[in-house]
Amino acid sequence: MVQPVKERVLELLREVYPQDLHISEIARRLCVSRNTVAKYVGILEAESRIECRFVGKAKLCRARER
Fold it and tell me: For the chain: N or C, fewer Cβ within 10 A?
C-alpha cells in the first residue's frame, strides 16, 4: 500500500528533526509537487503536528518535539 503524502511529509520531518526543511526540499525528497506539499504542510500545521516559520520568503518546517 502506498503511504499517503501527508504521512510521508510528517515521517520525513521526523527523520531529519531538529533540522528545518523548506517546502521545495520536502517536495524534491518525496518526488511530489511543491503545491501538494504546501497543501499537506498547511494541514499538518493546523493539526499542530509540525511547526513552520518564515525566513524571508522561505517557509521552513520541522516536526514538533515528541
Answer: N
Interhelix angle 23-30/34-46, rounded to 10 degrees, is 120
**Which CATH number is 53's domain given?**
1.10.10.10
For the chain, the domain total comes to 1
pLDDT tens sequence across 13-50 = 999 999 999 999 999 999 999 999 999 999 999 999 99
Alpha-carbon Rg for the chain, nearest whole angstrom, is 11
Element (H, E) at 52: strand 50-55
Closest CA to 21 of 55, 65, 66: 55
Q: Record the pTM.
A: 0.91
